[in-house]
Structures are given as C-alpha cells and as structure tokens.
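To the wet lab folks,

You asked to see what we're planning to order before we commit. Fair enough. Below is the target structure as tokens, and below that is the sequence we designed to fit it. If anything looks off to you, flag it before the synthesis order goes out.
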C-alpha cells in the first residue's frame, strides 16, 4: 500500500541552489525490548499479554547516522541499500513525517510524497472522495481539485472504478491512483519510496514518462527502490546507504554495480528497463467486470 501526502511551502528559492539539503542527519528510534522474552516457550505462554514494566529496557535504533547530501534542482536521485539500511527513514525525515534526532533538513519548495508505509487513502471511501481529500490536504482549492480530477483519473485509467470504495482496488490500482494524485499536485520535490513496484509494465512505463515530464519542468525526484534496473533507468545520481550511513554516491550504473557486488549478486540485467519499454497492455486487458 502506498500513502501520499503533500505539504505547502513557499515556492523554491533559486538562490539556494539545491532542492533538498540533508546535513549531518541522525534519526534514532526508541523501542522497548524485553530481555526475558528470548525463548519460544516464553513467547508462546505470554502471547498477547502485556507484562509489567520490570525487566524491560529501551533500546535506541540508530536508523540514520550522520548522513549528508544535497539534491540539485531538476535531478532524479536514487537511493539503494539492503533491508534496514535506513532508506525509508531518511525519506520520512525529508518528507517531514519523522523529525531527525539531530542535523538539518531543508526542502526548497513544495514537496509531495508517495511512500510505501503509513496512512494513505481511506479504503472505505471511493476513489473520487480520496482524490478530492488528497488534493485538499495538499493545499489545493476545491476548484483546482475539480480542474485536475479528470486528468488524474484518466492518467490512472481508473474512470470505471472511481466511484467504488478503494478497499475493492488491487494494490496496483491503489498505486496508480496514489501516483496520479501525487504527480498532479505540481510538486517541486517528489519522494517515491518503493511505490512503483506495485504497478504492471504498462503503469511503470507511464510512471517513467510522467517522471520525465516532471524532470523536464525542473522538478526534483528522489526514488527508493530495490529494483536496480529502475534506478539505472530513471536516476541521474545515486546514493548507497548501509547500516544508516551513506557509503557511496555517484553515477547510478557505478554505485549500483558496487552495491550488487557487495551483496554478492551477479550484475542484474536491466529487467525493469526492458519491462518498462514494452507496453504489455493496460488494466482493461487484465480484468472482467459486469454490472448486476
Ligand atoms: N518505527 C520503527 N521503530 C523502531 N525501529 C524502526 C522503525 N522503523 C524502522 N526501524 C529500524 O530502523 C532501521 C532502518 O529501517 P528503514 O525502514 O529505514 O530501512 P530501509 O532501508 O528502508 O529497509 P527496507 O529495504 O527493508 O525497506 C532498521 O533497523 C529498522 O529496524
């Protein structure tokens, strides 16, 4: 599931020379550990019970450790790294959802986010209601939302489904609508965390084209993905994070090759690129619906 949000900010200040500045950022999570609960027997006998506070300890997880980078206006930055490397955490911090424990984050312009985790659309409401609410939450007026509504649903190819509750959408359909809304809000900075992975080849092609359109308008995009092909295809700059630290920054081909080698993975064929290039048909080809 994807979530989307956008925040109002002043228009980008061209004098700043960057779209995003991340300066010596640390993000720590506090979590509770119960050192007594270290056996399967204990877990089974205490399943679902809340124990007393005795014996439990607070553990700090250093999810992001002293990370610094700037993102230039109109560039597409990819972030790669193993599970738990801190990619989603830094994205949430840039989005303003999670305040850094220390350091500084500056976003120069209006930000729109499409993140893999968190509260997203309301599944009980129709696609139509969610588009309207998403637009209003992003600071658009009712008129602006109405003006963009047709464009958003047409882009998502969901006109037939727009009055159905979103809980009846597949994860790919949900992803299409979330992507359509977040990219039609005129963001200066768009953050996309693994949200592209839900779409089929046709949708990925369209998403790629839409992102190119945003980049041509000097919008800035940051993408987190485990799809190395997508990072190589879409990004012009790449960061590799490992255990909360930024270990490498450079050209996507080089950084991802080093990352894959470190992971012991043979160089990945550009699967995403190949799939994105081929139009495998839209949603209509994949489903059958009947009014009763
Ligand atoms: N809400 C949370 N509470 C406590 N620890 C968390 C929380 N979210 C993430 N972490 C921890 O922070 C670290 C970084 O997690 P994060 O989700 O940023 O990694 P990631 O690189 O996005 O991983 P993945 O590729 O698996 O999505 C991990 O050690 C994770 O266990």
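Sequence we intend to order:
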């Amino acid at each position: 599931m994807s979530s989307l949000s956008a925040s109002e900010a002043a228009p980008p200040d061209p004098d700043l020379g960057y779209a995003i500045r991340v300066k010596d950022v640390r993000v720590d999570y506090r979590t509770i550990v119960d050192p007594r609960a270290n056996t399967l027997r204990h877990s089974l006998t205490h399943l679902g019970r809340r124990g007393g506070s005795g014996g439990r300890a607070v553990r700090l997880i250093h999810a992001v450790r002293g990370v610094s980078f700037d993102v230039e206006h109109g560039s597409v930055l990819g972030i790669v790294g193993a599970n738990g490397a801190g990619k989603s955490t830094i994205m949430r911090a840039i989005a303003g959802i999670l305040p850094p424990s220390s350091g500084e984050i500056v976003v120069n312009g209006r930000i729109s986010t499409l993140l893999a985790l968190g509260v997203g659309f309301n599944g009980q409401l129709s696609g139509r209601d969610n588009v309207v609410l998403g637009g209003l939450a992003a600071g658009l007026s009712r008129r602006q939302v109405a003006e963009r509504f047709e464009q958003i649903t047409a882009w998502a190819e969901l006109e037939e489904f727009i009055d159905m509750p979103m809980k009846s959408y597949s994860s790919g359909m949900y992803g299409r609508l979330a992507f359509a809304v977040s990219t039609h809000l005129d963001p200066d900075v768009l953050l996309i965390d693994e949200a592209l992975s839900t779409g089929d080849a046709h949708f990925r092609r369209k998403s790629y084209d839409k992102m190119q359109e945003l980049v041509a308008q000097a919008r800035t995009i940051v993408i987190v993905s485990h799809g190395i092909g997508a990072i190589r295809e879409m990004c012009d700059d790449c960061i590799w994070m490992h255990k909360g630290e930024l270990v490498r920054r450079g050209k996507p081909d080089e950084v991802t090759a080093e990352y894959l080698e470190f992971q012991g993975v043979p160089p990945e064929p550009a699967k995403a690129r190949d799939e994105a290039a081929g139009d495998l048909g839209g949603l209509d080809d994949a489903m059958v619906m009947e009014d009763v």
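Structural context that might help your review: The longest strand covers residues 57-71. The two ends are 29 Å apart (CA to CA).

Thanks,
Computational group
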